[in-house]
Amino acid sequence: MNAAIEERAPVDPPYGPILRNWAPLAALLIIGIPTIIRLGAQVWSQEFGAHGPIVLATGAWLLWRQIPAMSETGRPGHMGLTLLAVALSLPVYVFGRAYDLISLETAGVYGFGVALLHQRFGVMTLLKNWFPIFYLALLLPMPGWFLDEFTAPLKLLVSVMSASVVELMGIPLVREGVTMTVGPYQLLVEDACSGLNSLVGLIAITLFYIYLLRNATWQYSLFLVCMIIPIAIIANAIRIVILILLTYFYGDAVGQGFLHVTAGLFLFALSLVLMFALDSLVSRFWRNGKVAA
Question: Which pLDDT score is estimated for 91?
Answer without folding.
Answer: 95
